[in-house]
Amino acid sequence: MAYIMVDVETDGPIPGDYSMISFGAVLVDEQLNKSFYGKLKPISDQFIPEALAVSGFTREDTNNFDNPKSVMENFAAWLKEVSPNRPSFISDNNGFDWMFICWYFHHFTGANPFGHSSSNLGSLYKGLVKDTYQNFKHLRKTAHTHNPVDDAIGNAEALLTLKKDYNLKIKL
What we know:
The chain has helices at 49-55, 59-63, 68-82, 94-109, 121-129, 148-165; strands spanning 3-10, 20-27, 35-39, 88-91, 119-120. The protein has 172 residues and is an alpha/beta fold. The protein has a single domain (3-165), classed as 2-Layer Sandwich (Nucleotidyltransferase, domain 5).
């Protein structure tokens, strides 16, 4: 099983009513050199300007992005390439990131290659240090820029640190 660290940027709080603007994914291994980046045309006329601003894109920019169906099909193909078995979804905030990726996969391709499960990096860290008030974000090496590939790489670096320095038993 391959772990895939994912990060999404959106223009609102929920899929369907709002749009996933971009997302990044990286295969979690020592190299962190296999990544995917998708920029998706909005699926709804609704958007929250403050939410969209986080991505660094304007509405005009996003209207020129790629068709969501082809982006999700390309992402599914990339996942097959980097993970011969079912990939395992992990993210900084899987409650948010997962709902967009899962919804977009089911809506545009009819299936989610990740299955029905996801993991939360923050919860994993809290369990390892046995303190629900702790945060893993100091373990990132790559700056958190809201470019979803950068953010996924930073989170993957943190997961690798958990394996190395915190003795997390995980097969990568």
